[in-house]
Amino acid sequence: MRLRQVFLAPLFSKPGAVLGLLLMLFVAFFNPFGLRDASDRHSETWLLRMLAPFYPEAGQEEVVVVLIDDQALASMGASWPLRYGEQARLLRQLLSYQPKSLFVDLLYTQRRYDGGPTAGLQRALGSFHEQGVPLILADYHDAHGRSLVLPEFASVARTAAVNWSGYGERYPLLLQSPQGELRTPALQLYQVGCEAQGCSNEGFEAPLLVRWGYWSDAGMQGFVDLAGCDVRGQRGNWGQLFSMLAADAFRSQRAASEVERPQPCPYTRTLYANQLRDPSVADVLRGKHVLLGAHIRGIPDLVSSPVQGLLPGVYVHAMALDNLLTQGSGYWRAAPDGWLGVNLSDWLEIALLLLAGLVALWIPARPRAEGSRLYRCASHYLFWFVLLSGLALLSSLYLARWLHIAPFDWLGLVLMIGLFYAYLGEARVAEWWHQRKRRTSTEREI
Questions:
Q1: By C-alpha distance, which of 353, 382, 343 is closest to 22?
Q2: Quick one: average pLDDT of 29-55?
Q3: Closest CA to 335 of 283, 273, 405, 439
Q4: Measuring CA to CA, how many Å separate 286 from each of 17, 97, 283, 319?
Q5: In which element (H, E) is residue 377 found?
């Protein structure tokens, strides 16, 4: 009888708490109207943006993007698409700087009859193999997993699939196809670079959550215009974090781009194709992983970064490679599936929601006035809201830092628990307000 009173009495004395708990669990399990997915994406994007200033700089000097854009084309006296001969000249210029590897994020899947003969480009591609510089071409694969790169180019270079779907914001490192397992560009470049060090080829099955760095490299000041960019050493990491928090806290008073695109410049070192004629770029390119891409007006190939906003597509390969160089196989990934096919992050969210509900059932109708300070504080909804919110954030950071698991939806969790406790505590606030008004009226009469 005593146990029944302890465990069942609150269920009947607080029907609102029971209904609120059931509603939170319903949202967590069934994702009505995609609410949980939207909240999960926002939580992940927000945390990636806040942690960007703390991203390690270990791989920044090892990766360089060479970009072909409209300004570079004008400087070179060329137009888009580049003729095969012009591309061959560009590749020979890159090879002369002896990079560690080269990924060409340009597609050679259709034969261009206005591009001139392909023999010169084929010889330029083959010269990379002759000089021992790994060369990887972007490749599309058809539904049967077959490469679509033109045969004369595929015969002298490696290829890496760049077309995939169903991964959301994740970057797959390995793709399954009818032709076997395919490695994507970032993984190929990483493994090429560490072959001499005997790096393990295991542990890359899970798609990678790309972490974006924040600070531009001040060492590139002599090559590109960094005016308006936040460069490393300009301010401290914590100072930048608090600046972004302040901007996000008063989002409606700021331009959307200021909040969602706090850093207008890429994290990855960047040169432009017309700069390859300048011998001074040798120090930037020699012994580095180089990724050649294009950003042409009217031909969209863009990716979305939580830090820099929209960037040319080549940067997602560069940043994924940077993640691998920095973290190895300990990169951030989705939580593994656990009991009943529910992953670890989801179980943690459900456990915190259950804890919030159970606490609400046993919080007394009125705050306790006796006992120790902690005992009295524990009878307030605000105390538990702060405690559980902090626990959710710390749990997310722990999973990311030590278990390499992508952040879970802690913002949605805090919002649900906050609304739940605000609803349950409304009677307390109303009673306190009425008592305050009566006390003020009495004092005035006296």
A1: 353
A2: 88
A3: 405
A4: 64, 5, 6, 19
A5: helix 373-377
Measure CA 240 to chain center: 18
Q: Provide the residue type at 84 as one letter.
A: Y
User: For residue 83, what are the contacts with CB-CB under 8 A and spacing of at least 6?
Assistant: 114, 115, 116
- What is the per-residue pLDDT for 125? 95
Q: Measured between alpha carbons, how far is 33 from 38 in angstroms, rounded to an integer? A: 9
Determine the length of the chain: 446
Task: Read off the pLDDT of residues 53-84 as tens digits, 9 standing for 90 and up.
Answer: 999 999 999 999 999 999 999 999 999 999 99
- Contacts of 308-315 with C-beta under 8 Å, sequence gap 24+, read 308/212, 308/261, 308/263, 308/264, 308/265, 308/266, 308/267, 309/257, 309/260, 309/261, 309/264, 311/266, 312/67, 313/105, 314/65, 314/67, 314/105, 315/65, 315/266, 315/268
Q: In this structure, which amino acid lies at residue 18?
A: V
Q: Which two tokens stand for residue 110?
A: 């259709």
150 phi, psi to nearest 5 deg:
-55, 135
Structure tokens at 435: 């008592």
pLDDT of residue 305: 95
Read off the pLDDT of each residue in 310-331 and give the average, rounded to a whole number: 95
- DSSP code, position 278: S
d(CA 72, CA 19): 62
DSSP summary character for residue 332: -
Show the tokens assigned to 166: 């169903």
Tokens read off for 61? 């000097």
* pLDDT value of position 1: 47
225-239: per-residue pLDDT in tens?
998 899 988 889 999
Q: Measuring CA to CA, which residue among 118, 146, 8, 43 is closest to residue 400?
A: 43
What are the strands of the beta sheet with 269-272, ordered from one edge?
A: 158-161, 135-139, 101-104, 289-295, 63-69, 269-272
Closest to 141 in 3D by CA, of 152, 154, 129, 128? 154
Q: Would you say 303 and 170 are in contact if contact means Cβ atoms under 8 Å apart?
A: no
**Token match 């919110």: residue?**
389
Find the mean pLDDT for residues 143-161: 91
At 326-362, the pLDDT tens digits run: 999 899 998 888 777 778 888 888 899 999 988 888 8
Paired residues of 337 in beta bridges:
343
